[in-house]
Amino acid sequence: MNIDKFERMIAVYEAGSFRKAARRFGMSQPALTWSIRQLEETLGMRLFDRGPSGIRPTKACEAVIVRARLIVNEHNRLLADVERSNRTQVIVVGVHPMLVSSRLAQTIAAYRQAAPSVTLRVVEGYSADLIGLLRRGELDIAFSAAPLEASDVEEIAFHPLFSQFYSIFARADHPILSEIAEGGPIGNHAWAQADAPDVSIRHARSETVLDLLAQFGMTPDTAAIRSTSMHFIRRMILDGGLLGMVPVGQFATELSAGTVRQVPGSIIEGPPLGLLWIEGCYETAERQCLKALLSVMQAPAEGHVHNAVPAC
Description:
Shape: flat
Helix content: 40-55%
Number of domains: 3
Order of helices and strands: HHHEEHEHEHEHEHEHEHEHEEH
Oligomer: single chain
Number of helices: 12
Structural class: alpha/beta
CATH superfamily of the largest domain: Periplasmic binding protein-like II
Number of strands: 11
């Protein structure tokens, strides 16, 4: 038994097909089938039922797959840790786009002064992507929303820092504002939508967000622009005249000037935001220092950074 066989079993399980899984590994389907049969013989159990309509995992496979994923993820994290230890000290930090702010930049700058020999590599991504990278050992720390999947909650430590509120915004001349004020129906307006993998029907919180957007007329047909860049969505609201949901505070200057308005009744609280790391993972002094520095951030306010900089 080896890691490769576990990885192949997981690929077949996720793809639901030997042919699709074989293509992922660049190997022939008979070779992959033989590898799975060897694993079945080693484990003494049948992993997949094969029939004319395709394959499906057995109950034994459903029980084994959870452990197999943990083993593969831990193996990948071990290799990533060894690779990083053989290079100059590098810490890879994942950051949700919503959290890119002056305060974060100032915190990173303070860390550079405290640990000048460390190279920081910052990866931007949505929570679901960052959690996946964290599990595979490709990140040391993530700065994003709390994990939602039960398997992630068991494996990933989370230190909450603050909650983020979101709201729908529009230019002051957008017709939806008149429609709401008059109590009439919401028109078929174009939207700029965050193309985020963690906004899905799978989670109750996501359903709440989608229900709120639907109340103000957003449908798959009206989502004219999809982007992973919150800055781009902001520009489409401000310069393109589209509707969009962004964090409260994104339009502070424009709200004061009266050029942008918050759509009434559209505010919603997002999941808690904070630091994530793998529970029980080996901690270098440099990584502990960065975690301590980030943990003093109490809110993503612009133009401020906490004065308490821990010594490294």
